[in-house]
Amino acid sequence: KSSTVSDIIYNDKVNIYLFWGKGCPHCKEEIKFLNSIYKDYSQYFNIYTFEVWYDETNAGLMQEFATQLNETPKGVPYLIIGNKSFIGFTSGMEDSIKNEIINQYNNKTTDVYQKITQK
Questions:
Q1: Residue 50: CB atoms within 10 Å
Q2: How far apart are CA 54 and CA 24, in angstroms?
Q3: Pairing of strands 45-51, 14-20
Q4: Which one of 19, 54, 59, 69 has the fewest beta carbons within 10 angstroms of its own beta carbon?
C-alpha cells in the first residue's frame, strides 16, 4: 500500500522513503528485503512507500525529493535513507542499506522531506 505525505511523522527514528513501480521486479525484491529486516531494525526507522508509475502525485514527490538531494532519479526502486539514496536494487546492496540505516539514525540527519517543507 502506498503512503501519502500526511502519513509522514518525525520522531527519533530515521525516515526511509521508497519510491517504487507496480510490476517492477527489483522493487518487489527490495520491499521483500525491507520487510525481512523490519523486525531487527524497526527501532531505527519509519518507512514510507510511494508508487510512482501509476500515481502522478507520487512521481512528482519523487522528483522533489531527488531535487533536494541534487539527483535525477533514473528509475525505480529509488530508496532514500536520511540524505543518502540508493537507485535500483541488488542483493549486494543489502549490507550498505542496513549500515546506512544505523549511520543516519546515529547521526540524526535532517530528513529530506523536512528540508522541503521548511523552505
A1: 22
A2: 12
A3: parallel
A4: 54
